[in-house]
Structure to design on (98 residues):
């Protein structure tokens, strides 16, 4: 039981310090007509940190999709683009993040 208390105390201290090794990125698909089929595994997303990749390519690079949300845009007409929120938890053997 004492070991559990020590682990919980360490976890609480780590969380309180705000330390995190995760990187996050927000990605967007191209604008499509509102009645277009939903994205597939071949749909490219443009991400500032991760680059232009499909969801399988993002996964292969260590990124995890947290959420996908449709976003309505209007520029000369209405369209929809998909927004991805992704996270990378990759740590190097040294313990430092990417």
């Amino acid at each position: 039981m004492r070991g559990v208390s020590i682990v919980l105390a360490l976890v609480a201290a780590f969380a309180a310090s705000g330390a995190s090794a995760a990187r996050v990125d927000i990605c967007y698909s191209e604008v499509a007509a509102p009645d277009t089929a939903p994205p597939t595994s071949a749909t490219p997303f443009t991400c500032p940190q991760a680059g232009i990749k499909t969801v399988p390519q993002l996964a292969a690079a260590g990124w995890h999709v947290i959420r996908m949300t449709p976003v309505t845009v209007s520029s000369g007409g209405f369209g929809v683009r998909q927004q991805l929120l992704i996270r990378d938890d990759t740590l190097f053997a040294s313990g430092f993040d990417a």
Remarks:
- The first strand starts at residue 23 and ends at 28.
